[in-house]
Amino acid sequence: MTEAILLVGGKGTRLRPLTVHTPKPMVPAAGVPFLTHQLARARAAGVEHIVLATSYLAEVFEPYFGDGSSLGLHIEYVTEVEPLGTGGAIRNVASRLHSAPDDPVLIFNGDILTGLDIEALVATHQSSGADVSLHLTCVEDPRAYGLVPTDASGRVQAFLEKPQTPEEIVTDQINAGAYVFRRSIIDTIPAGRPVSVERETFPELLAAGAHLQGMVDSTYWLDLGTPQAFVRGSADLVLGRAPSPAVPGRRGDRLVLPSASVAPDAKLTGGTVVGEDAVIGAGARLSGSTVLAGAVVEPGAVVTDSLIGARAQVGARSVLTGVVVGDGASVGPDNELREGVRVWCDARIPAGAVRFSSDQ
């Protein structure tokens, strides 16, 4: 059995207002909390025991997932009193692991949507004899990420944080946020204080001569840290571009949960999701968007690449493009909101208050 640790303690600051009332891994993607997709994929790869390292709004996880038996898992929960960083969180849950010192332990960041071949990463770890193995992916512009160059055998050579000049960009391989640790290595992480695996643990292990192995897997990969990325990830799950056994319905242009109400002439495309008890009015057009539970999109509204929070309302004929509307907020009729606008939870925008002329 391979055990896993899921790091789900982050505050999700970049995702606000989605994360004001909900921790990032519990925001619905393709009809279920995003964490459900990660848990289901881990189970499909043979994982049976998972420890959730929680912190922000920690109290919401266990009531939803319980002991994990509904997913065929045994789930335990460990809550950080103070945020400990990625390395500190891993060390903080070590006592809940059952693995022997040389056994592999999977570790996932709770905000990455990926098609990673989990079993292949474990196999690479075991066949290479590594102390730590990292999932690496290749990106076109690596300046926002930490680079991880490897030699011809895949052995990690260095960790280079967010290079900016062309001379510093020596590879397009980045740390993709999934690891396999030799169990005994976890106990070498300092306990009781914040530790970053990316900036402290991995560089120190490398400097001490440990074997860190990289496996490049360039299947689907998306960091869901921004609202735009989160909406895209949800749509990609519905469209079948991102794999998950947890999507509650057939993949296609739309996913409408059973208790939702959609007018016959409304048009839903691009992986749009309509959540429980949500209402989509006559003639509304939604593309690549997510409408959470109990929200209302009134007749004639046009919503593109946007997320409408739980119990929120989009008024008739309003046009939203690349927008996040927080839980309980109201966008009145005849408004136009453009890329990057975030409407805070419970905010009210009156009818026709925000409009753009064609020459703006």
CA-based shape? elongated
Uncertain ranges: none
From the alpha-carbon coordinates, what is the Rg to the nearest angstrom? Answer: 22 Å
CATH C-level class of the largest domain: Alpha Beta
Number of helices: 7
Structural class: alpha/beta
The percentage helix is: 10-25%
The largest sheet has its strands arranged as 5-4-1-6-11-8-12
Fourth CATH level, the homologous superfamily of the largest domain: Spore Coat Polysaccharide Biosynthesis Protein SpsA, Chain A
Query: Average pLDDT, to the nearest integer?
Result: 91
Distance between the termini: 59 Å
Q: Indicate the CATH architecture of the largest domain.
A: Alpha-Beta Complex
Strand content: 25-35%
Could you tell me the number of beta strands? 30
As for the number of domains, it is 2
Annotation keywords:
single chain; 360 residues; alpha/beta; Spore Coat Polysaccharide Biosynthesis Protein SpsA, Chain A; UDP N-Acetylglucosamine Acyltransferase, domain 1; 2 domains; seven-stranded mixed beta sheet; six-stranded parallel beta sheet; 18% helix; elongated
Overview of the structural elements:
It is a single chain. This protein folds into 2 domains: 222 residues, Spore Coat Polysaccharide Biosynthesis Protein SpsA, Chain A (Alpha-Beta Complex); 97 residues, UDP N-Acetylglucosamine Acyltransferase, domain 1. It has 360 residues and is an alpha/beta fold. A 7-stranded mixed sheet has the order 5-4-1-6-11-8-12. Strands 14-17-20-23-26-29 form a 6-stranded parallel sheet. The protein has a 6-stranded parallel sheet with strand order 15-18-21-24-27-30, with no helix packed on it. The chain is 18% helix and 28% strand. The mean pLDDT is 91. The longest helix is centred in the middle third of the chain and has 13 residues. Pfam families: GMPPB_C (PF25087), NTP_transferase (PF00483).
